[in-house]
Protein backbone atom coordinates (compact mmCIF):
# COMPACT_ATOMS: atom_id res chain seq x y z
CA UNK A 1 0.00 0.00 0.00
CA UNK A 2 2.86 2.39 0.81
CA UNK A 3 4.40 1.78 -2.63
CA UNK A 4 1.02 2.55 -4.15
CA UNK A 5 0.80 5.90 -2.36
CA UNK A 6 4.35 6.78 -3.40
CA UNK A 7 3.39 6.06 -7.01
CA UNK A 8 0.42 8.34 -6.50
CA UNK A 9 2.70 11.20 -5.53
CA UNK A 10 4.97 10.68 -8.53
CA UNK A 11 2.15 10.52 -11.04
CA UNK A 12 -0.48 12.72 -9.47
CA UNK A 13 0.57 15.91 -11.27
CA UNK A 14 0.57 14.40 -14.77
CA UNK A 15 -2.54 12.25 -14.69
CA UNK A 16 -5.69 14.31 -15.11
CA UNK A 17 -8.81 12.17 -15.09
CA UNK A 18 -12.49 12.76 -14.66
CA UNK A 19 -14.86 11.15 -12.19
CA UNK A 20 -18.51 11.22 -13.26
CA UNK A 21 -19.77 12.10 -9.81
CA UNK A 22 -17.36 15.03 -9.48
CA UNK A 23 -17.38 16.43 -12.99
CA UNK A 24 -18.27 19.94 -11.86
CA UNK A 25 -15.22 20.21 -9.63
CA UNK A 26 -12.58 18.25 -11.52
CA UNK A 27 -9.99 20.96 -12.13
CA UNK A 28 -9.89 22.23 -8.56
CA UNK A 29 -10.07 18.69 -7.25
CA UNK A 30 -7.04 17.57 -9.26
CA UNK A 31 -4.93 20.28 -7.63
CA UNK A 32 -6.41 19.53 -4.23
CA UNK A 33 -5.73 15.82 -4.51
CA UNK A 34 -2.07 16.45 -5.25
CA UNK A 35 -1.73 18.47 -2.06
CA UNK A 36 -3.90 16.02 -0.11
CA UNK A 37 -1.83 12.97 -1.06
CA UNK A 38 1.46 14.74 -0.38
CA UNK A 39 0.16 15.82 3.02
CA UNK A 40 -0.82 12.27 3.94
CA UNK A 41 2.79 11.22 3.54
CA UNK A 42 4.61 14.22 4.98
CA UNK A 43 2.38 15.71 7.66
CA UNK A 44 -0.01 13.09 8.99
CA UNK A 45 2.06 9.92 9.39
CA UNK A 46 1.41 9.70 13.09
CA UNK A 47 -0.41 7.39 15.46
CA UNK A 48 -3.25 8.06 17.82
CA UNK A 49 -3.02 6.54 21.26
CA UNK A 50 -6.09 5.09 22.85
CA UNK A 51 -5.38 6.25 26.39
CA UNK A 52 -8.46 4.43 27.66
CA UNK A 53 -7.21 0.99 26.66
CA UNK A 54 -3.73 0.38 28.05
CA UNK A 55 -2.17 2.99 25.76
CA UNK A 56 -2.83 0.86 22.71
CA UNK A 57 -1.24 2.51 19.70
CA UNK A 58 -3.48 3.06 16.70
CA UNK A 59 -1.74 3.57 13.37
CA UNK A 60 -3.55 6.24 11.36
CA UNK A 61 -2.09 5.57 7.92
CA UNK A 62 -0.09 2.36 8.17
CA UNK A 63 3.24 4.19 7.96
CA UNK A 64 4.82 2.97 11.18
CA UNK A 65 5.19 4.19 14.75
CA UNK A 66 6.20 7.81 15.24
CA UNK A 67 4.99 10.16 17.96
CA UNK A 68 2.03 8.24 19.37
CA UNK A 69 2.96 8.41 23.05
CA UNK A 70 3.36 12.20 23.02
CA UNK A 71 -0.11 12.58 21.50
CA UNK A 72 -2.15 10.72 24.11
CA UNK A 73 -3.01 14.05 25.76
CA UNK A 74 -5.21 15.12 22.87
CA UNK A 75 -7.74 12.38 23.46
CA UNK A 76 -7.73 12.72 27.22
CA UNK A 77 -10.40 14.68 29.07
CA UNK A 78 -7.99 17.63 29.17
CA UNK A 79 -8.54 18.19 25.46
CA UNK A 80 -11.96 19.73 26.10
CA UNK A 81 -10.32 22.43 28.15
CA UNK A 82 -8.20 23.65 25.27
CA UNK A 83 -8.95 26.75 23.24
CA UNK A 84 -12.38 26.46 21.64
CA UNK A 85 -12.66 26.36 17.88
CA UNK A 86 -14.89 28.72 15.94
CA UNK A 87 -17.86 26.39 15.48
CA UNK A 88 -21.00 27.86 13.91
CA UNK A 89 -24.56 26.69 14.60
CA UNK A 90 -27.04 27.50 11.84
CA UNK A 91 -30.75 26.94 12.53
CA UNK A 92 -33.62 26.55 10.06
CA UNK A 93 -37.19 25.25 9.95
CA UNK A 94 -40.15 25.08 7.58
CA UNK A 95 -41.37 28.47 8.76
CA UNK A 96 -37.87 29.92 8.62
CA UNK A 97 -35.98 28.11 5.84
CA UNK A 98 -33.21 30.71 5.71
CA UNK A 99 -30.53 29.84 8.24
CA UNK A 100 -30.07 31.90 11.38
CA UNK A 101 -26.77 31.68 13.22
CA UNK A 102 -27.01 31.19 16.97
CA UNK A 103 -23.90 31.86 19.03
CA UNK A 104 -22.65 29.81 21.92
CA UNK A 105 -21.79 31.52 25.20
CA UNK A 106 -23.06 34.86 26.50
CA UNK A 107 -24.48 35.82 23.09
CA UNK A 108 -26.75 32.76 22.99
CA UNK A 109 -30.42 33.38 22.22
CA UNK A 110 -33.27 31.68 20.35
CA UNK A 111 -35.55 34.72 20.05
CA UNK A 112 -34.67 35.31 16.39
CA UNK A 113 -35.28 31.71 15.40
CA UNK A 114 -38.30 29.47 14.86
CA UNK A 115 -36.80 26.75 17.05
CA UNK A 116 -39.36 24.70 18.99
CA UNK A 117 -38.20 22.13 21.51
CA UNK A 118 -41.21 19.86 20.96
CA UNK A 119 -40.12 19.18 17.38
CA UNK A 120 -37.62 16.55 16.39
CA UNK A 121 -34.24 18.24 16.01
CA UNK A 122 -31.88 17.24 13.20
CA UNK A 123 -28.19 18.13 13.54
CA UNK A 124 -25.98 17.79 10.44
CA UNK A 125 -22.18 17.75 10.77
CA UNK A 126 -19.85 17.85 7.76
CA UNK A 127 -16.48 16.12 7.47
CA UNK A 128 -12.88 16.83 6.52
CA UNK A 129 -12.13 19.70 4.09
CA UNK A 130 -15.79 20.70 4.03
CA UNK A 131 -18.14 23.43 5.28
CA UNK A 132 -21.80 24.23 5.86
CA UNK A 133 -22.40 25.62 2.37
CA UNK A 134 -21.65 22.35 0.61
CA UNK A 135 -24.35 21.45 -1.89
CA UNK A 136 -25.07 18.11 -0.25
CA UNK A 137 -25.76 19.75 3.11
CA UNK A 138 -28.19 22.23 1.59
CA UNK A 139 -29.97 19.42 -0.27
CA UNK A 140 -30.21 17.28 2.86
CA UNK A 141 -31.45 20.24 4.90
CA UNK A 142 -34.21 20.97 2.36
CA UNK A 143 -35.13 17.28 2.17
CA UNK A 144 -35.55 17.09 5.95
CA UNK A 145 -37.77 20.18 6.00
CA UNK A 146 -39.89 18.67 3.23
CA UNK A 147 -40.01 15.34 5.07
CA UNK A 148 -41.34 16.67 8.36
CA UNK A 149 -41.80 19.71 10.57
CA UNK A 150 -38.39 19.58 12.24
CA UNK A 151 -35.70 21.87 13.58
CA UNK A 152 -32.52 21.62 11.52
CA UNK A 153 -29.17 22.67 12.94
CA UNK A 154 -26.20 22.69 10.56
CA UNK A 155 -22.84 22.65 12.34
CA UNK A 156 -19.94 24.34 10.58
CA UNK A 157 -16.57 23.37 12.03
CA UNK A 158 -14.54 24.31 8.94
CA UNK A 159 -12.21 26.34 11.19
CA UNK A 160 -11.00 23.03 12.57
CA UNK A 161 -11.53 20.70 9.63
CA UNK A 162 -10.68 22.74 6.55
CA UNK A 163 -6.96 22.03 6.77
CA UNK A 164 -4.68 19.80 4.69
CA UNK A 165 -3.39 18.32 7.94
CA UNK A 166 -5.89 15.50 8.36
CA UNK A 167 -4.33 14.49 11.64
CA UNK A 168 -4.95 17.93 13.12
CA UNK A 169 -8.57 17.81 11.92
CA UNK A 170 -9.02 14.39 13.53
CA UNK A 171 -7.72 15.74 16.83
CA UNK A 172 -10.25 18.58 16.63
CA UNK A 173 -13.22 16.20 16.46
CA UNK A 174 -13.40 15.81 20.23
CA UNK A 175 -13.40 19.57 20.81
CA UNK A 176 -16.15 20.09 18.22
CA UNK A 177 -18.23 17.34 19.81
CA UNK A 178 -17.80 19.03 23.17
CA UNK A 179 -18.99 22.35 21.74
CA UNK A 180 -22.08 20.71 20.23
CA UNK A 181 -22.97 19.29 23.65
CA UNK A 182 -22.51 22.76 25.19
CA UNK A 183 -24.80 24.24 22.53
CA UNK A 184 -27.48 21.64 23.27
CA UNK A 185 -27.16 22.42 26.96
CA UNK A 186 -27.68 26.12 26.20
CA UNK A 187 -30.93 25.20 24.44
CA UNK A 188 -32.14 23.06 27.34
CA UNK A 189 -31.39 25.85 29.81
CA UNK A 190 -33.40 28.26 27.65
CA UNK A 191 -36.41 25.92 27.45
CA UNK A 192 -36.63 24.54 30.98
CA UNK A 193 -40.41 25.07 31.13
CA UNK A 194 -41.02 22.72 28.20
CA UNK A 195 -43.35 19.80 28.91
CA UNK A 196 -42.87 17.99 25.60
CA UNK A 197 -39.32 17.35 24.42
CA UNK A 198 -38.69 16.25 20.86
CA UNK A 199 -35.84 13.86 20.20
CA UNK A 200 -32.44 14.66 18.71
CA UNK A 201 -31.07 12.98 15.58
CA UNK A 202 -27.36 13.57 14.92
CA UNK A 203 -26.06 13.01 11.39
CA UNK A 204 -22.36 13.16 10.56
CA UNK A 205 -20.28 12.44 7.48
CA UNK A 206 -16.73 11.07 7.73
CA UNK A 207 -15.00 12.85 10.63
CA UNK A 208 -18.39 14.42 11.34
CA UNK A 209 -19.70 10.98 12.31
CA UNK A 210 -17.13 10.70 15.09
CA UNK A 211 -17.90 14.27 16.16
CA UNK A 212 -21.49 13.11 16.65
CA UNK A 213 -20.20 10.27 18.81
CA UNK A 214 -18.16 12.63 20.97
CA UNK A 215 -21.13 15.03 21.24
CA UNK A 216 -23.43 12.23 22.39
CA UNK A 217 -20.92 10.90 24.92
CA UNK A 218 -20.49 14.36 26.43
CA UNK A 219 -24.19 15.26 26.38
CA UNK A 220 -25.04 12.09 28.33
CA UNK A 221 -22.95 13.41 31.21
CA UNK A 222 -25.17 16.48 31.45
CA UNK A 223 -28.27 14.39 32.31
CA UNK A 224 -30.66 16.50 30.30
CA UNK A 225 -34.37 15.90 29.71
CA UNK A 226 -33.50 16.22 26.04
CA UNK A 227 -32.37 12.92 24.53
CA UNK A 228 -30.11 12.13 21.58
CA UNK A 229 -32.23 9.26 20.32
CA UNK A 230 -30.47 8.50 17.03
CA UNK A 231 -27.09 8.95 15.37
CA UNK A 232 -26.58 8.27 11.66
CA UNK A 233 -22.96 7.81 10.66
CA UNK A 234 -22.35 8.47 6.97
CA UNK A 235 -19.23 6.46 6.12
CA UNK A 236 -17.44 7.30 9.39
CA UNK A 237 -13.79 8.15 8.81
CA UNK A 238 -11.32 5.25 8.97
CA UNK A 239 -7.85 6.89 9.28
CA UNK A 240 -6.96 7.33 12.98
CA UNK A 241 -10.22 5.73 14.18
CA UNK A 242 -9.97 2.11 13.10
CA UNK A 243 -9.19 -0.45 15.81
CA UNK A 244 -9.67 2.11 18.58
CA UNK A 245 -11.65 1.81 21.78
CA UNK A 246 -15.35 2.69 21.55
CA UNK A 247 -14.65 5.85 23.54
CA UNK A 248 -12.59 7.16 20.61
CA UNK A 249 -15.02 6.59 17.72
CA UNK A 250 -18.75 6.63 17.03
CA UNK A 251 -20.26 3.52 18.61
CA UNK A 252 -23.66 1.95 19.16
CA UNK A 253 -23.43 2.75 22.87
CA UNK A 254 -23.65 6.47 22.06
CA UNK A 255 -27.43 6.51 21.43
CA UNK A 256 -30.45 4.19 21.60
CA UNK A 257 -30.28 3.79 17.80
CA UNK A 258 -27.10 4.15 15.76
CA UNK A 259 -27.22 3.38 12.04
CA UNK A 260 -24.22 3.45 9.73
CA UNK A 261 -24.01 3.69 5.93
CA UNK A 262 -20.67 2.29 4.72
CA UNK A 263 -19.69 3.34 1.19
CA UNK A 264 -15.87 3.32 1.06
CA UNK A 265 -14.62 0.97 3.76
CA UNK A 266 -12.02 -1.55 2.61
CA UNK A 267 -12.44 -4.87 4.38
CA UNK A 268 -9.01 -6.14 3.39
CA UNK A 269 -5.61 -4.54 2.72
CA UNK A 270 -6.58 -1.51 0.63
CA UNK A 271 -7.05 1.77 2.46
CA UNK A 272 -10.56 3.17 2.41
CA UNK A 273 -11.78 6.53 3.63
CA UNK A 274 -14.53 4.94 5.72
CA UNK A 275 -14.55 2.37 8.52
CA UNK A 276 -15.28 -1.12 7.18
CA UNK A 277 -16.24 -2.73 10.49
CA UNK A 278 -19.79 -2.58 11.89
CA UNK A 279 -20.07 -0.11 14.77
CA UNK A 280 -23.80 0.56 14.96
CA UNK A 281 -27.00 -1.24 15.84
CA UNK A 282 -27.58 -1.42 12.09
CA UNK A 283 -24.77 -1.23 9.53
CA UNK A 284 -25.68 -0.88 5.87
CA UNK A 285 -23.23 -1.90 3.15
CA UNK A 286 -24.66 -0.61 -0.15
CA UNK A 287 -22.99 -2.49 -3.00
CA UNK A 288 -20.69 -4.16 -0.48
CA UNK A 289 -19.67 -0.88 1.14
CA UNK A 290 -16.33 -0.56 -0.67
CA UNK A 291 -16.70 1.16 -4.06
CA UNK A 292 -19.94 2.64 -5.31
CA UNK A 293 -21.24 2.24 -8.89
CA UNK A 294 -20.73 5.31 -11.01
CA UNK A 295 -17.49 6.14 -9.17
CA UNK A 296 -15.27 3.61 -10.92
CA UNK A 297 -13.42 3.75 -14.26
CA UNK A 298 -12.47 0.17 -14.93
CA UNK A 299 -10.52 0.92 -18.12
CA UNK A 300 -7.98 3.27 -16.51
CA UNK A 301 -5.38 0.97 -14.99
CA UNK A 302 -1.66 0.21 -14.88
CA UNK A 303 -0.75 -3.08 -16.52
CA UNK A 304 -4.44 -3.97 -16.57
CA UNK A 305 -4.50 -4.35 -12.80
CA UNK A 306 -3.90 -1.30 -10.57
CA UNK A 307 -6.19 1.71 -10.99
CA UNK A 308 -4.35 4.89 -11.95
CA UNK A 309 -3.53 6.49 -8.57
CA UNK A 310 -5.26 9.83 -9.01
CA UNK A 311 -8.30 8.04 -10.37
CA UNK A 312 -8.15 5.76 -7.33
CA UNK A 313 -8.31 8.73 -4.96
CA UNK A 314 -11.15 10.39 -6.88
CA UNK A 315 -13.06 7.11 -6.85
CA UNK A 316 -12.61 6.89 -3.09
CA UNK A 317 -13.86 10.45 -2.56
CA UNK A 318 -16.82 9.80 -4.85
CA UNK A 319 -17.76 6.58 -3.02
CA UNK A 320 -17.23 8.25 0.36
CA UNK A 321 -19.75 10.94 -0.59
CA UNK A 322 -22.45 8.54 -1.78
CA UNK A 323 -23.38 7.91 1.86
CA UNK A 324 -24.99 11.33 2.25
CA UNK A 325 -26.57 11.13 -1.21
CA UNK A 326 -28.29 7.86 -0.28
CA UNK A 327 -29.66 9.32 2.95
CA UNK A 328 -31.02 12.38 1.17
CA UNK A 329 -32.68 10.24 -1.49
CA UNK A 330 -34.32 8.12 1.22
CA UNK A 331 -35.92 11.31 2.58
CA UNK A 332 -37.23 12.29 -0.83
CA UNK A 333 -38.62 8.80 -1.44
CA UNK A 334 -40.92 9.10 1.57
CA UNK A 335 -43.14 11.47 -0.40
CA UNK A 336 -43.40 9.22 -3.46
CA UNK A 337 -43.28 5.69 -1.98
CA UNK A 338 -42.27 4.35 -5.39
CA UNK A 339 -39.05 2.67 -4.22
CA UNK A 340 -37.36 1.53 -1.01
CA UNK A 341 -33.71 0.89 -0.16
CA UNK A 342 -34.52 -2.68 0.95
CA UNK A 343 -31.53 -4.29 2.65
CA UNK A 344 -30.84 -7.98 3.36
CA UNK A 345 -29.04 -9.57 6.30
CA UNK A 346 -25.38 -10.08 5.32
CA UNK A 347 -22.38 -11.86 6.85
CA UNK A 348 -19.87 -9.49 5.15
CA UNK A 349 -18.72 -12.18 2.70
CA UNK A 350 -19.62 -12.57 -0.96
CA UNK A 351 -20.58 -16.22 -0.72
CA UNK A 352 -24.02 -16.81 -2.20
CA UNK A 353 -24.65 -13.08 -2.48
CA UNK A 354 -26.87 -13.56 -5.51
CA UNK A 355 -29.11 -15.89 -3.52
CA UNK A 356 -29.21 -13.44 -0.62
CA UNK A 357 -30.47 -10.52 -2.66
CA UNK A 358 -32.85 -12.62 -4.75
CA UNK A 359 -35.01 -13.35 -1.72
CA UNK A 360 -38.17 -11.23 -1.61
CA UNK A 361 -38.09 -8.34 0.84
CA UNK A 362 -40.71 -7.14 3.26
CA UNK A 363 -40.71 -5.52 6.68
CA UNK A 364 -40.51 -8.91 8.42
CA UNK A 365 -37.19 -10.00 6.88
CA UNK A 366 -35.56 -6.82 5.55
CA UNK A 367 -34.90 -3.26 6.64
CA UNK A 368 -34.85 0.02 4.71
CA UNK A 369 -31.61 1.95 4.56
CA UNK A 370 -32.05 5.63 5.26
CA UNK A 371 -34.46 7.70 7.27
CA UNK A 372 -36.91 4.82 7.89
CA UNK A 373 -34.29 2.48 9.37
CA UNK A 374 -35.33 3.14 12.97
CA UNK A 375 -38.87 1.92 12.22
CA UNK A 376 -37.70 -1.71 12.03
CA UNK A 377 -36.70 -4.11 14.82
CA UNK A 378 -33.88 -5.73 12.83
CA UNK A 379 -30.30 -5.35 14.00
CA UNK A 380 -27.02 -6.39 12.39
CA UNK A 381 -25.24 -5.96 9.05
CA UNK A 382 -27.14 -5.55 5.79
CA UNK A 383 -26.41 -5.61 2.05
CA UNK A 384 -28.28 -3.73 -0.66
CA UNK A 385 -27.76 -2.72 -4.26
CA UNK A 386 -28.06 0.74 -5.80
CA UNK A 387 -27.85 2.04 -9.34
CA UNK A 388 -24.88 4.04 -10.63
CA UNK A 389 -26.79 7.34 -10.96
CA UNK A 390 -29.79 9.13 -9.53
CA UNK A 391 -32.30 7.77 -8.70
CA UNK A 392 -30.12 5.30 -6.80
CA UNK A 393 -32.94 3.16 -5.45
CA UNK A 394 -33.46 0.11 -7.69
CA UNK A 395 -36.38 -2.26 -8.06
CA UNK A 396 -36.16 -6.04 -7.83
CA UNK A 397 -35.82 -6.61 -11.58
CA UNK A 398 -32.60 -4.57 -11.64
CA UNK A 399 -30.90 -6.27 -8.69
CA UNK A 400 -29.09 -9.15 -10.42
CA UNK A 401 -27.62 -6.95 -13.15
CA UNK A 402 -26.42 -4.30 -10.71
CA UNK A 403 -24.85 -6.71 -8.22
CA UNK A 404 -22.87 -8.50 -10.93
CA UNK A 405 -21.54 -5.16 -12.12
CA UNK A 406 -20.58 -4.15 -8.58
CA UNK A 407 -18.81 -7.39 -7.73
CA UNK A 408 -16.69 -6.97 -10.84
CA UNK A 409 -15.73 -3.50 -9.61
CA UNK A 410 -14.66 -4.91 -6.25
CA UNK A 411 -12.55 -7.62 -7.95
CA UNK A 412 -14.69 -10.36 -6.45
CA UNK A 413 -15.06 -13.68 -8.28
CA UNK A 414 -17.33 -15.38 -5.78
CA UNK A 415 -20.71 -14.63 -7.36
CA UNK A 416 -22.36 -17.90 -8.27
CA UNK A 417 -23.93 -18.25 -11.68
Overview of this structure, please?
- Residues 79-392 form the Lipase domain.
- Its EC number is 3.1.1.32.
- By secondary structure, the chain is of the alpha/beta class.
- It folds into two domains: 84-255, Rossmann fold, CATH 3.40.50; 285-416, no CATH class.
- Helix content is 30%, strand content 16%.
- The chain contains nine helices and 15 strands.
- It has helices spanning 2-11, 26-42, 135-147, 158-161, 166-190, 207-221, 309-333, 353-358, 399-409, and strands at residues 47-50, 56-59, 88-92, 100-102, 121-125, 151-156, 200-205, 228-234, 257-261, 282-286, 301-302, 306-307, 342-345, 367-368, 380-384.
- It has an eleven-stranded mixed β-sheet, with helices on both faces. A two-stranded antiparallel ribbon has the order 1-2.
- Strand 5 (121-125), helix 3 (135-147) and strand 6 form a beta-alpha-beta unit.
- Helix 1 packs across helix 2, helix 3 packs parallel to helix 7 and helix 5 (166-190) runs parallel beside helix 6 (207-221).
- It is globular, with a radius of gyration of 21 Å.
- Residues 1-55, 66-73, 75-82 and 411-417 have low confidence and may be disordered.
Amino acid sequence: MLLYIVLTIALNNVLIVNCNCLNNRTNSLNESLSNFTYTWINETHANFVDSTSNNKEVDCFGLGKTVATALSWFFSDKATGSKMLDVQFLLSSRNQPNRVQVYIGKQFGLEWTDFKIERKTIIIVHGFLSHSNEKWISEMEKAFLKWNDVNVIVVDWSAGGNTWNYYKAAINTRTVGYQISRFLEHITNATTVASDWGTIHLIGHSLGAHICGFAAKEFKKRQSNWIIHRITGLDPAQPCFRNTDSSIHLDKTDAPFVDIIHTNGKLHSNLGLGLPEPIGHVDFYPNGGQSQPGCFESNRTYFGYLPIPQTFIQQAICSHGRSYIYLTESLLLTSTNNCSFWSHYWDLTYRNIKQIISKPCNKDVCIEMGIKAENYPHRGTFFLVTSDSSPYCVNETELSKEVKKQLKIDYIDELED
